[in-house]
Write a structure and sequence with these properties.
The protein has 1018 residues and is of the alpha+beta class. It folds into four domains: 231 residues, Metalloenzyme, LuxS/M16 peptidase-like (Cytochrome Bc1 Complex, Chain A, domain 1), CATH 3.30.830.10; 216 residues, 2-Layer Sandwich (Cytochrome Bc1 Complex, Chain A, domain 1), CATH 3.30.830.10; 233 residues, Metalloenzyme, LuxS/M16 peptidase-like (Cytochrome Bc1 Complex, Chain A, domain 1, 2-Layer Sandwich), CATH 3.30.830.10; 208 residues, Metalloenzyme, LuxS/M16 peptidase-like (Cytochrome Bc1 Complex, Chain A, domain 1, 2-Layer Sandwich). It is built from 31 helices and 28 strands.
Length: 1018
């Protein structure tokens, strides 16, 4: 049983993202799902063997208490199923169909076939024509990609369908479609050729330095095993060579009812669901005898133990793997108790590693994990992101911390600290069990089948964890650590950004050199409590309290000007959401500001409070639902947390102390700067990275507040400068506190009075008028050029049109969202399904409600360089058609119905209402805007969309960009889709120059007709 222990440490998601730490697991192709949990040690009453009832198929080899909410069955053809009733969200039914076939079942010439068939199954089958299933499910309220999707992993293929409006007829139709998809997909020449292009586009979009490094890691760690070279995406050769006959043979060999599991959870009578499942799946017959699953192999101790790779566009990293053969373990209570002890032993080490990194070690980030990697190995992984060129020191430091844990039992204080933290996480899950979604329940069950385990309830997860305490003695945890850091094979991989002399020999020497246990890494932080925070003034007084008139929300005003939006409810049992908005956000800075905003989300929070640094704050928050999260919005800065009924008052105190008594530590700032240094590359390494890095900045007319961080920013950032920038922002401006959740309303008012209400009145420094408007760039007739250093077959194209902004025209903004959905769907149908030119084309509408300008509708996609002219031609044709002709009612309904269901689901969430009403106390129009949200989105007409398209999708106002491999000659293309005769080269041979944001170096540019063709090298 694994669990993500969120908010335990102050390491921010922004830092982790910037570091791009390579995951040494095959699970890169398989998003991690919450693992099924075991059961408590409380044994069921003894029953004579002869009288014991037969346990359902999922629990046959397990002694854990069964989750009785599930009803299990097996059809005569061998198909297994599990069904349960769940009313969260109301009216929805979630279906997961897992077939026991993944890339590890493929022979070399079949690489990518399992994934290819997943795609073909969605195109069409005996039940539906090509592409029609997507349209049927849209009419039933399901959005493609979020509500209907599939994934192929090394060990399985899972089809997912969430029907938000699950009528009797809709479920019947959906199960019929799914049965046809599995039993008889249309594996015919026309479908194979069309979907081959889509799969190749998906493969092309996935080519990146990180993906290359993952392939290197997988091939090295699992040398001699199938997992080493069986990525689900396949190879260009096997995908190009795939024939309908070969794909059909693979399908018939592996797609069988006796290799299939269906899990259904939702708001419908399980007996009705079971009857429909039997109706549509009972007739499915297997083709011939079953093919045994191939042997996935064992870690080879004879394979090389060390390897060095050079990947210029990824951070330095060192990975260690302690590999042991994967063996099936019966999912018993005792097995899970011991596994939890292993997890706690690793958490002890992870805490010490993070503490060392925060105090200035030679590594930015390091961690240890335990995983059964695709049933190919039981492995302990160590991942290290060293400071630039300090990998030997970093490796030594990390090994020394691990060595100390291998030699010295942890103290009882250490054990209690980690146990409390893990218990808090399990308790949180148990408290919110009543709102566990149907989708999660169905996903958990098929995930359990994949890893050959069982499922139990969140409460049982908590029970088993508490009962495992007997395994968590110093001696047993020492034994766990020693076992986890041993293996039949041990591997080490070093990833460098540039070649280094004798790197392999140095790596080998570093691994063989004994290290002295780092006894100083053991934590010695005691006596930290809320009393350690600086004292706040006496509680403030309430001057006004009134009902907002929506959902029972109250507004409370305190004498110092602080305002509270409060909603006490049981929508999310055990959760209290808190947002504290203060100041004026980006509007506090001029548009030229570009040197320190990027560092704030991590460095500002990790700098501490009063006398407490990051180490002390981590100890303060341990075992409690306390956190420090920070974001910068256009009109405010926001502190946020998800706490609980027992911790929310202290969470408010922590936030208030952060504003009143900020600490300015240099170590977090240095760590943030080092993270930028570790990950920065002058030229983007892929088309997607070029867009991710530059597009927001470019679409804001190169506003420095949206600019990506550069080495110039890094070099200019000092602690003095950082403090001078942020200290005034923390000290001034209005404060709005939002508290929504499971708590007593009077206790919440008292808690705010004692914290934010106690602060002295704050001076407001309104933003300069010129800081408020957001700008869209000037129109260009020829696209801006952005280079990348990645694969020659990878390119991207973007076109955007200016729209508007502000709350006064909020209805228009919502209709533009529907127009963008129509464009996205047409691009999917044409650019992906028919032409196979792109895998993920998309359109979206951005409308800033804090500025009267700066909004836009943007369309973007990745594709091959030679398809760029076609993209611009196609999108201009779509825009012209939308302006000239109203959409059909069916096309509009297929977008409206998923939005309707999305709103229905979101409307039960506190997070949704908080997002809609944030800023209400300074901008009351937000309440009226929230009241019309559903009407504005759902009552839009074809004529209104046509009018919007005619008004905004005007060629003369558009801005566009293309991303090309550096140095590649391509025909210049105009934004209207026409192609002049001139040839440009991305990255060179341009006669003019413009300055690149964040640098003083000019970069080449070429002029286009009536516009610029500038090269951006961010």
């Amino acid at each position: 049983m694994t669990i993500t222990l969120a908010a335990r440490r102050l390491i921010a998601a922004t830092l982790a993202t910037a570091l791009l730490s390579p995951l040494p697991l095959a699970a890169q192709a398989q998003p991690a799902a919450p693992a099924p949990a075991p059961a408590p040690t409380v044994a069921p009453p003894a029953v004579p063997a002869a009288a014991a009832p037969k346990r359902p198929w999922l629990y046959e080899k397990s002694d854990v208490p069964m989750d009785m909410a599930w009803h299990f069955g097996v059809l005569d053809n061998g198909l297994r199923y599990a069904i349960r009733r769940n009313e969260v969200p109301a009216g929805q039914v979630s279906i997961r169909v897992r077939v026991d076939v993944g890339s590890l079942m493929e022979e070399p010439k079949e690489a990518g076939f399992a994934h290819f068939i997943e795609h073909l199954s969605f195109r069409g089958s005996r039940e539906v024509p090509d592409g029609e299933s997507k349209r049927i499910w849209q009419r039933l309220g399901a959005s493609f990609g979020s509500d209907s999707n599939a994934q192929t992993t090394p060990t399985g293929t899972t089809y997912a369908l969430d029907l938000p409006r699950a009528s009797d007829a809709g479920i019947d139709e959906s199960l019929k479609i799914l049965a046809g998809m599995l039993a008889e997909p249309n594996i015919v020449p026309s479908a194979v050729e069309a979907e081959r292009a889509v799969v190749m586009a998906e493969r092309r979009e996935g080519l990146s330095p990180t993906a290359r490094l993952e392939d290197e890691i997988r091939g090295f760690y699992f040398a001699g095993q199938r997992l080493a070279n069986h990525s689900p995406i396949g190879t260009e050769a096997t995908l190009t060579g795939a024939t309908p006959a070969a794909l059909r043979a693979f399908h018939d060999r592996w797609y069988r009812p006796d290799r299939t599991v269906i899990a259904i959870s939702g708001d419908m009578d399980p007996a009705v669901l079971e009857a429909k499942l039997k109706t549509h799946f009972a007739s499915w017959k297997a083709s011939g005898p079953a093919t045994p699953i191939p042997d996935f192999g064992k870690p080879d101790p004879r394979a090389p133990a060390a390897k060095v790779v050079v990947e210029p566009s990824t951070p330095f990293s060192v990975g260690l793997a302690y590999l042991r053969p994967w063996v099936f373990n019966e999912d018993t209570v005792a097995f899970n108790e011991a596994r939890l002890a292993d997890q706690l032993a690793l958490e002890l080490i992870n805490r010490r590693l993070e503490d060392a990194a925060s105090q200035g070690a030679d590594f930015l980030q390091a961690g240890v994990t335990l995983d059964n990697s695709a049933r190919s190995a039981n492995a302990t992984y160590v991942t290290i992101v060293p400071l630039a060129n300090a990998w030997e020191k970093a490796l030594t430091e990390v090994r020394a911390i691990i060595e100390d844990a291998r030699r010295t039992p942890p103290s009882q204080t250490d054990i209690d600290r980690e146990f409390a933290n893990m218990e808090t996480a399990y308790s949180s899950f148990a408290a919110s069990a009543s709102i566990e979604s149907s989708a999660r329940q169905a996903e958990n069950l098929v995930s359990a089948v994949d890893i050959r385990e069982t499922v139990v309830s969140p409460q049982v997860q908590l029970d088993i964890f508490r009962s495992s305490r007997r395994f968590m003695t110093p001696e047993k945890l020492l034994a766990s650590t020693q076992r986890l850091f041993s293996g039949d094979a041990v591997r080490a991989l070093l990833s460098l950004r540039a070649p280094q002399p004798n790197a392999l020999a140095r790596l080998t020497t570093a691994l063989r050199t004994p290290v002295k246990p780092a006894a100083n890494a053991r934590l010695n932080v005691a006596g930290i409590s809320m009393a350690s925070l600086p004292a706040l003034p006496p509680p403030g007084q309430v001057t006004e309290r009134r009902a907002l008139g929506v959902l029972g929300i109250q507004t409370v005003t305190f004498e110092n000007g602080v305002k509270l939006l409060l909603l006490a409810n049981k929508a999310e049992p055990g959760k209290v959401r808190i947002n504290v908005r203060f100041g004026h956000g980006r509007q506090s800075f001029p548009a030229r500001q570009d040197d320190a905003l990027w560092a704030a989300p991590f460095a500002l929070m990790a700098s501490g409070v009063g006398d407490l640094g990051q180490r002390e704050l981590t100890e303060l928050m341990n075992g409690r639902r306390l956190s420090l999260n920070f974001r910068i919005d256009d009109d405010a800065f926001t502190l946020s947390a998800v706490s609980g009924p027992e911790d929310f008052a202290d969470q408010l105190r922590l936030f208030a102390a952060k504003l009143a008594f900020p600490r300015w530590d240099e170590a977090p700032l240095k760590r943030t700067i080092a993270a930028l240094e570790a990950s920065y590359d002058p030229v983007a390494s892929s088309a997607s990275e070029a867009l991710d890095r530059n597009l927001d900045w470019l679409l804001h007319d190169r506003d420095g507040r949206f600019a990506p961080a550069t080495p110039t920013d890094r070099d200019a950032l000092t602690l003095e400068h950082f403090k001078a920038l942020w200290a005034p922002q923390l000290a001034a401006g209005p404060i709005e506190v939002q508290i929504f959740g499971d708590l007593d309303a009077e206790a919440a008012v008292d808690a705010v009075a004692a914290t934010f209400g106690a602060l002295p009145p704050r001076k407001d420094v309104p933003p300069a008028p010129e800081n408020i408007p957001l700008r869209f760039p000037a129109s260009v007739s020829s696209p801006i050029l952005l280079p990348h250093s990645g694969p020659a077959e990878q390119a991207a194209a973007v076109i955007a049109w200016p729209t508007g902004g502000g709350l006064a025209r909020v209805q228009e903004s919502r209709r533009l969202e529907m127009l963008a959905r129509i464009i996205s769907d047409r691009l999917f149908e044409k650019l992906r399904s028919i032409d196979g030119a792109a895998y993920t084309p998309s359109a979206s509408s951005i409308w800033p409600d804090t500025s009267e300008s700066g909004g836009y509708l943007v369309v973007q996609t990745q594709l091959k360089p030679d398809r760029i002219p076609y993209f611009f031609k196609l999108i201009n044709e779509i825009a012209a058609d939308l302006a000239a002709n109203p959409v059909s009612q069916d096309e509009l309904d297929r977008q409206i119905e998923p939005v309707r269901q999305l709103l229905n689901r979101a409307g039960t969430s506190n997070a949704f209402w908080m997002s809609q009403l944030e800023g209400y106390t300074t901008e009351p129009r937000r309440l009226a805007a929230t009241a019309t949200l559903a009407r504005d989105l759902l009552e839009v007409t074809p004529a209104q969309l046509q009018a919007l398209a005619a008004r905004y999708l005007v060629p003369q106002t558009s801005w566009s960009a293309i991303v090309l491999p550096r140095g590649m000659p391509v025909p210049l293309v105009r934004a209207d889709g026409t192609t002049p005769d001139a040839v440009a080269t991305a990255g060179r041979d341009k006669p003019a120059a413009v300055a690149t944001a964040g640098t003083d170096m000019p970069v080449p540019a070429a002029s286009g007709a009536n516009g610029s063709n500038a090269l951006i090298s961010h």
